Amino acid sequence: MLKEFDVICIGAALVDMVAKIERHPIDDDEVFVSNFQLLSGGAAANTAYACARLGLKTAFIGKLGYKDEFGIKIIKDFKDVSLDTTLIKYSKEHGTGSAYVAINKEGDRRIYAFSGAANLLTTNDINSEDLLKTKTIFLSSLRNLESFRKAAKIAKRNNIPVILNPGMLIIEQGFDSIKNLFALVDILIISKREFQNLFDLENNKLNEQIIEGKAKILFKLGIKVIILTMGKKGAIIFNSEKSELIKPIKVEQVVDTTGAGDAFSAGFMYGFIRNFSYKFEDLKYNVIIGNTIAGKCIQELGARNGIPTTDELALFSYDG
Fold this sequence. Notes:
Elements: E1 5-11, E2 14-21, E3 33-41, H1 43-53, E4 58-61, E5 63-65, H2 69-80, E6 89-91, E7 96-103, E8 109-116, H3 128-131, E9 134-140, H4 146-157, E10 162-165, H5 168-171, H6 175-182, E11 187-191, H7 192-198, H8 208-221, E12 225-229, E13 235-238, E14 243-246, H9 260-275, H10 280-297, H11 310-314
Parallel strand pairs: 1-4, 1-9, 2-7, 5-6, 9-10, 10-11, 11-12
Antiparallel strand pairs: 2-3, 7-8, 12-13, 13-14
């Protein structure tokens, strides 16, 4: 069957209300906002946007408020990068979600997310005939897991790779609640904080032995590849036989870390979709691309402004 899309991204599309501040407030405190912007966001939507900007044929499945102002903005921004919006669902009862993001001068952020219509995506909104149009399925950061499970099951039955970047909304539900979703995933992209929370390791300093021991639990579920993003340290890639730390790119100034993980996921998929190889060396190269896109992202305000085009990416050389 001829595939219409390289990837379908499923999850939340929100509008980010982004405030630039000197410092984060303490209890019963007030801080001055020096800059305020409305930017399209949502983890899966950010990754979808980045994939489309990188030249992948991309579609998005998520739920927006019906013809509300935030939803109209999200659709416009998607169309600006030729992202397919025909699979998006709408709610007449609930509005498009939003997130309130405060960023200090070091680029550290605090996010308060209101999912709105996004979390109302149901199993009825996930259709086999839609998913069979794609080569890859990407899932990210939606508290309601039933739609994710259905999408992943359809993908498994039809040999379509499933990539999950869970986010804390999924991880905080606990390992026992989410392990049946993990069992349907081929590639797991997970942050250090999410990994620590998943295995109740918040107060432990991660070392190679602890990480590899917990990774074995995930491999037993059927996951083929794990990528542990480590912020300033880069990302560790694992399969059941080996692992390696891939260093990040050199960054002149961190402006905003919002969307760095979403950008990484898009970069990784850009590499993966070109050959669908699970060979360790090929996967390493995909992680390098992910690090590159994430590094570009954090040098601009907002989750999308730093995402390069395919041509811009081709000019970059890795020296990590």
